Amino acid sequence: MLTSQRKKSILDALKRDGQVLAKPLSEAFGVSEDTIRRDLRELAAQGKLQRVHGGALPSSPAVANLAGRRAIGTDAKAAIGRAAAQMIAPGQIVFVDGGTTAIQLARHLPAGLRATIVTHSPNVAVELAEHEELEVIVIGGRLFRHSMVTVGAAAIEALGHIRADLYFMGVTGVHAEAGLSTGDLEEAYVKRALVARAAETIVLASSEKLNAASAYMIAGIDAASTIIVEKSTPDAAIAPFEPFGVTIVRA
Q: Where are its TM segments located (predicted)?
């Protein structure tokens, strides 16, 4: 079998099974585990999978830059953002993450809502500028242009002084084994700090993020109380999260 054919078969198995392991693949193809590991390294370098110990998981397309992510699942993200906005009650203090789905949340907040929104996303803050009843707190730090959010020690220090009722988390991967993940280490640290300072974490997860993984783990699935998915999400796609006691909301 040619290398290109073997790689295609690996990707087909990954799509079918949700994960692949190096040893069974080496036995199936009659090649060494080193050969399979090389295949996995090369496929990972092309962004086609996420390597883990012993094998690989699907890679999330949501690690693309902000401009690229705006074109992915726009209707679904609007529906998820609308459902998330309806969960905010008057008087609450709410963390809102960065990203394209979080922007949809901001756009769907009721005009007269009186609450406090804390965000490390300049784009989310701008979306809320016309909401005169909202108190908007912008967390400073180094601007991470890929996601248009602030990261670093200054951001984490500022978050340490706030206790929030809700945290609406954006992720690039939601996987039963790999947990909640993102494509940047510093961004993962900030998200972890947000989880620690919120009474409840709600994950915004359009379909391309489900059962996919990125390089940097934020927390396990059980850190989320709720995951909001699009209405058409197949039952099989959310079944792996049920043992964690997470509430699934279809938007």
A: none
- The region that residue 250 occupies, defined by phi over 0 for left and psi between -120 and 50 for alpha, beta otherwise, is beta
Q: How confident is the model at residue 15 (pLDDT cuts 50, 70, 90)?
A: confident
Residue 119 confidence (pLDDT) above 80: yes
Q: Could you tell me whether strands 179-182 and 216-219 are parallel, antiparallel, or unpaired per DSSP bridges?
A: antiparallel
| Closest residue by Cα to residue 137 from 104, 156, 115, 166 | 115
DSSP letter (8 states) at residue 213: B
Q: How far apart are the first and last CA of the chain?
A: 45
Comparing CA positions, the residue from 169, 246, 247, 244 lying closest to residue 209 is 169
Q: How far apart are CA 185 and CA 165, in angstroms?
A: 25
Mean pLDDT of 160-173: 96
Reported pTM: 0.87
CA 48 – CA 30 distance, rounded (Å): 23
pLDDT of residue 72: 56
Query: Domains of the chain by range and CATH?
Result: 3-59 (1.10.10.10), 66-250 (3.40.50.1360)
Query: What is the model's pLDDT at position 68?
Result: 54
Gap between the Cα atoms of 55 and 13, Å rounded: 12
What is the pLDDT at residue 228? Answer: 98
